[in-house]
Amino acid sequence: MARRSSTHSDLSSASARPPRPVACAGCRTVLVAGATCDRCGDEALFDLAQRRGRRSFVEQVWSETARRRFEQRNEPGFEDYLFDDSDGTDPIAMAGKWLWRAGRRRFLPVKPRGVSRGMAPPPHLRTFEGVVRRRDGIQLAPFSGRRCLAFGVLFTHLTSVWRSAVTLRDAVAVEFDIELNDGSTVRVPGGRVRLSLRATETIRPRARALREYLAEVDPLHARSEGLQPYPFQRVGEVLVRPGQRVEIRGTFEPMPDPSVAERGLSYRAAPPTILVATGTPWLRPRGRAPSAAGRG
Ligand SMILES: [Zn+2]
User: Fold this and answer.
1) 19-23: long-range contacts at Cβ-Cβ below 8 A with a sequence spacing of 24 or more?
2) Exposed site from 8, 72, 208, 238, fewest CB < 10 Å?
3) Domain tally, the chain
4) How many Å lie between the centroid of ligand 1 and the Cα of residue 42?
């Protein structure tokens, strides 16, 4: 991956992203160990780094029927009796078995449970809108490898014949600022954020990127077979980049702006305080991400 070999020392690589081995069954958000889901509390959290926690979460994702069908798929079935072919060379028996299995896949599908894509921020949050400005760090998005200040990932899978639902959602930011229209600043600390996943771009993940990503959110993935905790048919990614307009909702605390003193500016020349987002801020990109990483 050529982009990973960037000479910029400030790039947060895949290994710098915090591992997020905890899954919330309520909204399928991935969380760092010890965290609570800001939307669902700690009601439905599963630690995927533990075998038992992972197994329990898989049972949330896959219904008993789906699990039974999955097991049956790997067992010799009725078709072996119907199309007796002891040498495995009879073309008619082979075609018959293939058709039988294809029919079973079509009419007895193994589909996961998902959750709805839309998620409204809690009410009574303050809302600001402004332009994203870079601070010290920048990171690489897990699938596209593009430089960004925050990325969101969405996995979706068909859960019925016509409906697809969310099986994983994720969003991580490095610290950045949002410059508001009046010149004041809102600071987003690095860590987990909520990012509107409406404008996700579908990505065909490379095997290596997928492996690295799954290691962050499902540590036992490489050693596990069978039904997966985060099944997907589509992977979507959304980015927040320098220069982009975003809307932010959250709770904020005023803090003296350290850069005012650092730059030797008088308090008259620059606003003395900034607003720092506390808890998990909700971000919604307005318009498309700028194509080149600005210097923000
Ligand atoms: Zn949740």
Assistant:
1) 19/216, 19/217, 19/219, 20/170, 20/172, 20/192, 20/216, 20/217, 21/47, 21/48, 21/49, 21/216, 21/217, 21/218, 21/219, 22/46, 22/47, 22/48, 23/48, 23/57, 23/217, 23/229, 23/230
2) 8
3) 2
4) 8
